[in-house]
């Protein structure tokens, strides 16, 4: 079973994942073939299929690594003894740094994911949102965020995801990265200038 073999870890498997990550984020998903991944990684197709069912299965593994890294970063920043707005800025910058390494082709394919990928993307988003909501609830308990119904905050986050997927709005920005940054800043800092006191 591939999942059992993965759990043991493998330098060759890791190298395939790292190589595929670079190729996918630079050129997009559809353009890159398994043959190209194997050639760039110096691996045979037999080795590839030892660890992965297909290209989408490999992509799922890449996404899982990104999310696991994101969870570690979330916990690390949350544990810092710094003001909450600074925590939010660091989280946003972390995400923007990750997104900045992704080409427009890759981001476009994720936004408009194929049926084979869409279900997994939605599953990972739901898991990520659940983890982030726990972070928000802790912040509310500490008094770092005003208390609001979690369902309302969740609805706003979902609405913002729809905005990120709006191609017409995206054309107003130099690239989708800048649009995503604006959405995040709007969610967490509102429309007032940074540092301005609220009534």
UniProtKB/TrEMBL annotation:
The keyword DNA-binding applies. This is TetR/AcrR family transcriptional regulator. GO terms for molecular function: DNA binding. Residues 33-52 bind DNA. Residues 10-70 form the HTH tetR-type domain. It comes from the Bacteria. InterPro entries: Homeodomain-like_sf (IPR009057), HTH-type_Tx_Regulator (IPR050624), HTH_TetR (IPR001647), Tet_transcr_reg_TetR-rel_C_sf (IPR036271). The lineage of its organism: Bacteria, Candidatus Eiseniibacteriota.
């Amino acid at each position: 079973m591939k999942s059992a073999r993965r759990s043991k870890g493998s330098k060759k498997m890791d190298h395939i994942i790292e190589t595929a990550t670079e190729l996918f984020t630079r050129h997009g998903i559809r353009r890159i073939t398994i043959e190209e991944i194997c050639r760039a990684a110096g691996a045979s197709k037999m080795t590839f299929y030892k660890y992965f069912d297909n290209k989408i299965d490999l992509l799922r593994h890449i996404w899982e690594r990104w999310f696991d890294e994101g969870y570690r970063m979330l916990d690390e920043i949350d544990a810092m003894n710094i003001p909450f707005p600074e925590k939010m800025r660091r989280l946003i910058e972390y995400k923007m740094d990750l997104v900045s390494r992704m080409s427009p082709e890759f981001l476009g394919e994720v936004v408009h994911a194929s049926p084979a990928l869409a279900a997994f993307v939605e599953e990972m988003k739901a898991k990520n949102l659940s983890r982030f909501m726990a972070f928000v609830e802790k912040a509310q308990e500490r008094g770092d965020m005003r208390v609001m119904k979690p369902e309302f905050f969740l609805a706003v986050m979902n609405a913002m995801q729809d905005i990120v997927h709006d191609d017409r709005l995206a054309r107003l920005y130099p690239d989708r990265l800048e649009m995503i940054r604006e959405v995040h800043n709007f969610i967490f800092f509102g429309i007032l200038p940074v540092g301005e006191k609220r009534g």
